[in-house]
Amino acid sequence: MTRVLGLVVAALAVVVAITQPAPVPPVPTVEATSRSEAPPGGASHFTHCPWSRSDSLRNSAYSVMGEGPAGFDLSFLEGGSVEDRISGRIDSDTAARVENPRPVGASAALVEFSGGLGAVGVVAAGEGLLAGDLCSGRIPDSWHLPGGSTLEGESLVLRLFNPFTTDARIDLWAFSELGIEAGEALEGLTVPARRTRVVALEEILPRRESLSIVVRPVLGSVIPAMVFATGMDTAVWPGTGAGDGWEFPVAGAVGLRSDLVLTNEASIPVNFVIEAFDELGALLPAQVGRIEGPGQARVSLEGLSSSGFGVRVTGDGSFGAVIVARSETGIAATVGARTTATEWLVPGPGVVSSGSRLRFLNAGVTELTVTYRTLTPEGRTRANVISIPPISVRTVHIAAPEVAGVRVTSDGPLTVGWLSAVSGRAMFSGAIPSG
Amino acid sequence: MTQPSPPSSKQRVLALVVARRGDDIADVLASIEPQVYEVEDVVVIADRRPDSAAEAAGPKTARRLSEALDMVDGQVDYLWMLDSRTTARPDALAALIETAESLEASVVGSKVLDSDQPDRLLSVGGPTDVFGFPYTGLERGEIDQEQFDVIRDVAFLEPASLLVRRDLAEGLGGLDHTLPYLSFGLDICQRARVVGGRVVVTPGSEVFSRSSGAQRPTTWREQAGRLRTMLKTYSLVTLLWVLPALFLVGLATWLYRLAKGVLTGPVDWIRTWAWNLLYLPSTLQARRRAPTTSMESDAELFRFQVRGSLELREIAAELGALLGAGAEQEAPDDRASPAFWQRPDFITTVLGVALVLVLTRSIIAEGLPAIGYVLPLAESAWDTLRAYAGGWHPGGLGSPEPMHPSVGATAAIQFLLGGGGGAAGILTVGAVASGVAGMVALIRRLGLSRGARLVAGAVFIAGFPALWLAGEGYWPGLLALGGLPWSLAGVAGPDPETGRGWMGRLGRVGFATAASAAFVPLSIVIPVFFGLVWAVVARRSRPLVVGAAGSVLALPVLLPWLSGRGLADVLSSGAPFHPDPSWWVAIPLLAAGTVAAAVARGHPLSVAVAGVVIGSVGFLVARAGSLGAGQETTAAGLIAAAAGAALVVAGALDAPASLGIDVSLLRTATAYAAMAAAILVGLTTLIAAPAGRMGLPDDRFAAFAFASSRAEAHGPDRVLLTGPAETLPGQHRVLPDGTPYRLIGGVLDYPQAWLPEARLGDEVLEETLVGLIGGEELRPGELLARFGIRWVAASGPSPIADALSAQLDMRPLAGLFVGDSAGVWENDVPAYRAMTDQGVAWSWVAPDYAGRSSGGSVRIAENADHRWGPGAWQQDGWANRVPAEAGVATFGGVGSFRFQARAAAVIVILLVGLSLVRARREAEDEPV
User: Fold this and answer.
1) Is the pLDDT of residue B439 over 70?
2) Fewer CB in 10 Å around end: N or C, chain A?
3) Is residue B322 part of a domain?
4) DSSP classification of residue A73
5) What is the pLDDT of residues B143-165, one digit of tens each?
6) Sorting pLDDT into bands at 50, 70 and 90, what band is B294?
7) Contact: A20, B536; criterion CB under 8 Å
8) What pLDDT is stored for residue B716 in this prediction?
9) Domain membership flag for residue B578
């Protein structure tokens, strides 16, 4: 009896034991955040500016804005250490401007905000140069820099800025009209800590009509920027992460031929639709296309509108996008906005002596009332209210040279950018969503 | 008894009564009077002579032999020396005279019987070892059945009754009155042998004496006496090797007795040598008077001596009995057999020791690897005990929560071992050895064979449950194996006959249970569960009662940890184990258990049934993580499974032997199949043999020594560890996204293996790390410095490590390898656990902080608790701030936890005391 009882108990216990699944690891109580899925670039605690240029003929200015009162430290990193540091403070009614912080040559800087979030834009102007765009806040897993070319007489330089304490190692994926480009010079590039590495693409991949780059870090992180020079003008645009929709309030301007260049680093193609919006609110023809996976696509926006216009491009997958606009003498480029917002920080307008044009894109179906407030370092502000009809863009002129930034608020979602032109040279720039 | 015939020619005999202080000599004098063989006279040899009146009324008294001889008229031929406690039969002297005359013996001794129990033998002379330790050859309380009634040459005679030729006695220089009883006899015999005299015992001469106890030869006076005798009688060449050997034997003996709880061993050993040093001049004088001491005379002595040391043989026999002796053990006098090494018990012992040495040889040679919970013990055992008794828990950012009982237990053992760094290795090897010995003792008690005992011992400590625990680096699980089988052996043992026996039994079961529960707390229920199963199997209720009592008695050892955590938390907290044995281990074990329980008979059946029930239920508990069981619960399940597996294997191995010739061939064949399966299971224990570290994985945490090697003057700073959970030491915390991490306080040690419940500072740290992973922090070093974190080390892939690829103030240290895909970063921002207002770092001297006294305050980066001091305490966010004036910051302690810890210590000491009382009593009853 004991024998039977023991065997029955043991059999039951073993059967129950065997059927027990392994304990489930603790379930995350909040959604895990992946860097690649971080919200599209808004104001942040820090931002990286991989490029600025100053010399006797050219000036550069850093425009610093905050969501609210904040302190900032502008650190220039060269040769593995912090070469210079400039500190300042801004509040909700001011925007700071730091001009020519480094007297000679190209430099890279890191801006840290304390006590609040902020945004920074860089503009360089002078002989043969009008260029600038926003500094990069968040760091995606890979960077898209479409829109370059290396035809005769053109210079295309990729600046890789590593402000961090760890050496970075990266691979470059290059796409041209020839397809995917390969070469040892594109693989395993080391960017030492607290240094900037310059990759002269026109030497590595010369005579490419359309050249796009995807920067894929293997170890550490870098912040890239593309510097494209034609000899008469220079355009600079930052790297971005991939997104499945982009808005470009500044996609085209009178006298400029614009191309929208798209990159896809995934192995499956991405189908996209481009919608255009002009100041008249006319229904412009939409374009559809496909980005090979991986690969690039260049879409000419020439002839879409006789006035300034903006575009929205949406795809069935993630991709990178840049607008590159050319004239006989000038060249401009900018990255798009991955999201719409009701509040925007626009650093930089006013830096260019001839003035700038602020452009709003309302891709929605309701009219928006927008207030934009110009900010100066001294705290002199001026607010203006305009209305923007549905599915249209609206451009306003910012003429005051002391304006370091513009704060935009709206009663509905929109995107904001700005452009400037002087002596045949041109530049486009984006804005930072806030709030 | 045969009546001796009177000698042909009358020899004159002087009776000498050797009076010892305080003894009444009336009886011995009375027994001399009626001797068939008349004595010429009687003289009492005493230290001091009585006054003249008393001497006139009583026998003559002398202080020396020469004095006594002078008192006798004329020449005597023999001296009959009687101890003052001896009484002689009337024919005793006649038999001595007859033997002396017929054999021409120089010294003749009588057979000594117990005066209280006249049929019991006390001594019939015998051999000694080279150190003079006597071997009686008698069992305890052996009845005289004339089995020794033969005249024999011997090396040693008890001086109860000795007949010595007068001329020899005079030639030897008289008697040595400095010697105690036994050594007195040895001295006469040895000196007689040295000069060529013959020493014999004649059983025809019977005297009575009082038993002087089994421990008499081991008293320090007798040891000292034997040493003096050697110094007097051995040649210089012999002394050159005998004395060092005696020194070492004495050392080993007192160490062994110390381990048994006889605390006087070292003192006795010192007194033995000190006494001889004191008496060295008289010893040398006596040696010079000796007629001859040469190699030839030594050879004559060696003829009647056994080889080796009888004391060491006795120790070996006791150890053998511990491991192998059972109900069928041979007579205890076998321990002195010259061929003791050929006995099964000794062979079992040797195999058991060899098994332990093979499985732990790397630990013995190189120390423990640092992996999982196998962490070095804290530098100061005393400070750890202070912290354990209501002090500050050093895990994470600290807590007043009580520490795990294993921290207190390991620290206490470390303290008892002198606080050395090798205590952890000694503890591990000791636990493994104790586990083997305990399981052997348990299986012996359950009535199975020696082979079954040894294989069961191996399966218990190196079967799949134990190896699973070891593979997980769960060191406390290995340590718990040391005590449990002894507890189960006590539960299954026969019922004591007396109340004192019951007290001892319960004390031992309670102590053994505590020794297991201190490391795996929930193993405290295993004895009561085993008691329940064994009560059903053996059909008697006592095992359940004893098991329950043992568990209850051991319960205080879990204080104050249990009261601080609460039972529900203990049952469910911690990452559970989930053993998943290989089929080639599980199937043979299942087959062995099932078949043995189905076909065996008798003891093997009972053991197999108990084994399958305990093992299967233990296995179920060990895999109950998905049912809510936590780390402690599943660990206890694995321990139970280990015990069950050992019982199953033992039962299966003896299954064929349990069947008689009346069973069918099929059943017999099936039983042999069970035995084969059990052998296969036994062979699997050899898996751990090649590495020789009990299945523990390779060292992983030695790489973290950088925190010490790069420490600044104030000592090592905190390290934030992250990486896959299995690569982190001890317990860890988990961020909301599942990222494991933990803090260590610079030097990685065992008290930090266990983490207390998260408190305010831990929550702030978690928020900081979440922000870091979210890419929201560019200067993590600045944030981590507030927690005193100078280092971040990733032992493998981790989102925290990924986040450090893009920051500004944590400097990566190239070349430091702490794991695959890992790295170490050093904080550029000064990061101190304790820092004064002036920015001066204080040192962490666990469990306190110390530094330069100054004005202002010092911020202590430990979880805020108002008991930090001295002086006015302030909460600084999640941390503490106390005045820096004293130069020290201490945690005041939790009174109730301190009381509970002390009470637990007292109860453990009481349990140990109960066990020792029993051991001493038994030792007193042992035969010499």
Assistant:
1) yes
2) N
3) no
4) E
5) 887 777 788 889 899 888 999 99
6) low
7) no
8) 87
9) no
CB atoms within 10 A of CB A37: 11
Residue B174 sits in the same domain as residue B190: yes
Span A223-233, average pLDDT: 93
Q: How far from the centroid of its chain's Cα atoms is residue B356's Cα?
A: 15
Residues B811 and B843 in one domain: no
Tell me the count of A-B CB pairs closer than 8 A.
124
Report the number of distinct structural domains present in chain B: 4
How far, CA to CA in Å, does B707 sit from each of B396, B529, B769? 16, 46, 21
Average pLDDT of the residues in A288-317:
91
What is the C-alpha separation between A242 and B801, in angstroms, rounded?
24
Strands (E) across A3-152 are located at 46-54, 58-66, 70-78, 81-90, 96-99, 105-114, 118-126, 129-134, 143-148
Alpha-carbon gap: A4 to the closest alpha carbon of chain B (Å): 8
Cβ atoms of B253 and B315 within 8 Å: the answer is yes
Phi, psi of B907 (to 5 degrees): -65, -40
Identify the closest residue of chain B to A220 by CA–CA distance. B805
Is the same domain home to B669 and B755? no
B154 with B94, same domain: the answer is yes
Are residues B645 and B746 both part of a single domain? no
Nearest chain A residue to B600 by CA: give it: A3
Q: Are B436 and B385 members of one domain?
A: yes
Instruction: Give the lowest-confidence range in A39-43, B346-350, B422-426.
Output: A39-43
- Of B814, B831, B848, at which residue does a domain stop? B831
Helix/strand/coil for B375: coil
Please check the confidence at residue B918 and state whether its pLDDT lies above 80: no
Question: Per-residue pLDDT averaged across A114-132, rounded?
Answer: 88
* B250 and B138, same domain (yes or no): yes
Residue B164 CA to residue B688 CA, distance in Å, equals 64
Q: B312 in a domain, yes or no?
A: no
| Pair B461, B538 in one domain | yes
Which CATH number do you get for residue B96?
3.90.550.40
* pLDDT confidence band for B823 (50 / 70 / 90): confident
* B357: containing domain: 350-566+585-649+661-688
Residue A299: per-residue pLDDT: 94
Dihedral of CA B275/B277/B281/B286: which sign?
Answer: positive
Chain B residue with Cα closest to A29: B736
Interface of B with A in 743-802 (CB under 8 A): 770, 773-779, 802
> Is B818 within the bounds of a domain?
yes
Q: Please, which pLDDT band fits residue A35 given cuts at 50, 70 and 90? A: very low
